[in-house]
Amino acid sequence: MNPVHNRLESAKRSFVTRHADLSLCDSISPAEMAAGDLLLAKVRRIRQHTRIELTSGRRAHLYPDDELILCAGRRYATDQFTAELPQAQSAHLVAAGGIAGQMTQRHAQVKPATEIDIIGILKDAQGRSLNLSRFTTLPLPAEQIFGSGPRTLLVTGTGMNSGKTTLAANLIYALNRTGARVAACKLTGTGSGPDLWRFLDAGADRVMDFTDAGLASTWQHPINELITIAQRAKTAAQLNRNDYLIVELADGFFQQETAALLRHTRFRQLIDNCFIAADCTAGALGLIQQLSSLQIPIHGISGTLTRAPLLMEELAQASGLPVLTSEQVQSPALLNQYLGSLGTRERAV
Amino acid sequence: MAEYYETPELGAWLHEPELIREPGRWLVCVHGISRNAREQLVAFKPVADALGIRLIAPNFCTQRFPGYQRLDQRPGHDRADLALNRLLLQLDPTCPQPRLDLFGYSGGAQFSHRYALCYPRRVRSLMLAAAGWYTFPDSNVRYPRGLAAWPEALPQPAAQARQFLSIPTLITIGSLDTQRDASLRRGERIDHQQGRTRLERAQRWFEYCRSLGAGTDWQLEQLEGVGHSFADSIAETRLLHLITHFLQSQQENS
């Protein structure tokens, strides 16, 4: 076997690189890195991330001098790190899904990022870098999907850890229980598996994210590219004969890609309605105002705020919108009521 | 100037007076099953102009909102209360908690008092004209005639009954609205609980609410010489005068 392949074979290969065909790799050499480039790195000092998520989803423990196959990428995570593309040999593992970046900021309650040394970029026989964009699994967008595609429910929230993925999974679970075929897509964020596993566990029969379209993370990517990914996900769901597509956006409204997507008419045309996850009343009302000003209909509010019945009542009266616990969202009959004409007319749900 | 505003979910006629005195306040006029939203808007324009508040007359179309009066929509149909709330949010996103002066005629009055049971803090005043029947704030009678077995999907009214009773309310009914016509809900239980005619039912509901503690700002007014007709109530009775006076007195009180 080629010594390069031998070396890659013994490295820990991260989740975001799962679609790449490593048999194309002919050499590993230092070079300027672009977002999505695959690279080999060595663990120098273990700090915040002590484990890495493998292509199988297993979270493997890290040890000093472990070699890792990662992807160059940026990260925007209010509860963890801000990271730019790696600029030098010395860099950081900024996400367990396998993102190599240069940490520029961190949340006060997390440790500094795990330190890595970049050995080099993976290149093919022609000297071209292996970039995630060469390994996509989503179909090209259909020319006309409006009207005949799956009913598309958007999940967005007041911020990181406000309960968006739980809400999306609950929607999937309840819709699946009605007999509907549900697809799910995490459209923005940083590549990692747990959200996708969660969607699968909830009953989605097709799960997608931006890594399927060749991005390791979406921060600072052009909005048109992200809208095209949304169209491709909707096309995939349509080809898969899904009745519903759940689209989750990472972070809060003021995150730049989230705000830009929601403001973009072409993205809003893909969406039928919206559910929001909130961690406080004021944040929820702010988000409701923003979405309403964009004419995005909100069909329900859930999230970590619903741990407090008093906050639920307060928000329901203030907004006039349904505020639902996880258990309520998981109820097929109840959810069907809130979906209205986007739901089923069968009483038996 | 009236305009028609429409979202994929709900359309409504709108009128903005030249001088808006209270930006967060809306006069909402809800039609009966004849779905005469525009007629209501035209009739109530002078009231909105006099008070300086915005006027909206939602159009709950039959196809999308076949049972809008009861709020607990059948599966696969949109809920009228939520559609109205979403529409108001989209019309004025800067005011997530508008204060509504809610008028309804016939089926619209049914919608309005049930909306107020669900969202008492959003309703500034309630004007119920010629409702065919009512939900009594009675926990011993099953929904929709009472509060027992209240639909899980609707905001729960039990804890809010006292707030509901504190909403200033004007109930009007034609003195000749005594026909048991095809659109009147009939049956042994409802006749026994509420009476046989709209006139009788309005009186009984008013008295029941008063017995629970509804205050002096609850009024029941008979419109002399008129039956079950919105047009006749506007053209031939003091309905608009009563409503203007009622709203003005609420404005002064607030």
UniProtKB/TrEMBL annotation, chain A:
InterPro entries to which the protein is assigned, alphabetical: MobB_dom, P-loop_NTPase
Gene3D superfamilies for this protein: P-loop containing nucleotide triphosphate hydrolases
Domain Molybdopterin-guanine dinucleotide biosynthesis protein B (MobB): 160-253
Designated name of the protein: Molybdopterin-guanine dinucleotide biosynthesis protein MobB
Organism per entry: Marinobacterium alkalitolerans
Taxon lineage: Bacteria, Pseudomonadati, Pseudomonadota, Gammaproteobacteria, Oceanospirillales
TrEMBL record, chain B:
Gene3D superfamilies xref list: alpha/beta hydrolase
Protein name stated in the entry: Alpha/beta hydrolase
Ranges of residues in domain AB hydrolase-1: 26-177
One family name in Pfam for this protein: Abhydrolase_1
Keywords noted in UniProt: Hydrolase
InterPro entries the UniProt entry points to: AB_hydrolase_1, AB_hydrolase_fold
Record-level Gene Ontology MF annotations: hydrolase activity
